[in-house]
Amino acid sequence: MVCGGFACSKNCLCALNLLYTLVSLLLIGIAAWGIGFGLISSFRVVGVAIAVGIFLFLIALVGLIGAVKHHQVLLFFYMIILLLVFIVQFSVSCASLALNKEQQSQLLEVGWNNTNSARTDIERNLNCCGFRVFDPNETCSSDCFRSRQCQPCAPIIEEYSGMVLRFVGGIGLFFSFTEILGVWLTYRYRNQKDPRANPSAFL
């Protein structure tokens, strides 16, 4: 059977959703590992990571069941949700890759000012205090605070922020293209007849 046939479309769609399932479990596992080893104390950050992992797992589950059973309704909703996720993820990935140094710095400062728990994790892991200026009168959870000789966190974070944004943007773009591939496979698969089924029963 050629690759454009029913069986090939079904197998490709199942393989794609198995990949999404593994990625979702990996995302949930990394968040749990970060909490277990004390690397992340921000429940907001962990909650977002776990929520994204569960959401991706549910989407993959819907796609997998729809592909195995050739269920028209499940495949339709899977295709629509995957298309919406593609639009959002593609936009965010392009924005991450397009940010210049000044925009990255402004974004980091806004995030720093709005997250107390993540700020504590950064100070402890990077051994720095404050964002732009070290203030010995403020509380800080890093080891260098005991000697009152800490450097601000902004230069350290900005040194790696560009690389991190490029990495995140690249990964996001890669998965966005797999999502549009999934939309196309689902659309084609929905309109194919199962050769083992009764042709008169196909809707």
Automatic annotation (TrEMBL):
- Transmembrane regions: 12-40, 46-68, 75-99, 167-187
| Signal peptide region | none
**Which sequence ranges form a coiled-coil region, renumbered to this chain?**
none
Cellular location of this protein?
Membrane
* InterPro entries documented for this protein: Tetraspanin/Peripherin
Classify the protein's membrane topology as the record does.
Answer: Multi-pass membrane protein
User: Which Pfam families does the UniProt record give?
Assistant: Tetraspanin
The record's Gene Ontology cellular component field reads:
membrane
What name goes with this protein? TSN13 protein
What is the organism lineage in this UniProt record?
A: Eukaryota, Metazoa, Chordata, Craniata, Vertebrata
